[in-house]
Amino acid sequence: MNNLFLRTYNYLFRQYKFYSLDSRSRMFYEIILFRLSLKKHGIDLGDYLEFGVYEGDATIAFYKALKKLKKEQSMKLFLFDSFFGLPEKLNSRDDNGI
């Protein structure tokens, strides 16, 4: 009976941790859990690189998920943004069919 109570408590606690995040952070939470499950196969979590940060919404959501999993110290975050946008097209090959 003790084991059933403990399993139920752990399940409910995981659900609370998951649903206390906003939707974007929940997505990152699931991705991080998946990556952590790959560790048993020798695949490490790695670092986080984001290009075109803009206002940092995705980065904030990712960090919230890391913090909820107590993994914020396990990786480095690298954020890139030019603040100028893309350069002018100099060649018709730059159109990429768009």
Rg, Å, rounded: 19 Å
Physical arrangement of strands within the biggest beta sheet = 1-2
Give the mean pLDDT.
82
Broad shape:
elongated
Q: What string gives the helices and strands in order?
A: HHEHE
Low-confidence region ranges: none
Structural class: mainly alpha
Multimeric state of these chains? single chain
- Tally of contiguous helical segments: 3
Distance between the termini: 63 Å
State the helical fraction: 40-55%
Plain-language structure description:
The protein has 98 residues and is mainly alpha-helical. The protein has one domain. 46% of the residues lie in helices and 8% in strands. The chain has 3 helices and 2 strands. Strands 1-2 form a two-stranded parallel sheet. Helix 3 links the parallel strand 1 and strand 2. Helix 2 packs across helix 3. The longest helix has 18 residues. The radius of gyration is 19 Å and the shape is elongated.
Secondary structure blueprint with pairings:
Layout: H1 2-19, H2 23-37, E1 48-51, H3 57-68, E2 77-80
Parallel strand pairs: 1-2
Keywords:
98 residues, mainly alpha, two-stranded parallel ribbon, 46% helix, elongated
Short synopsis of the structure:
The chain is 46% helix and 8% strand. The protein is mostly helical. It has a two-stranded parallel ribbon with strand order 1-2.
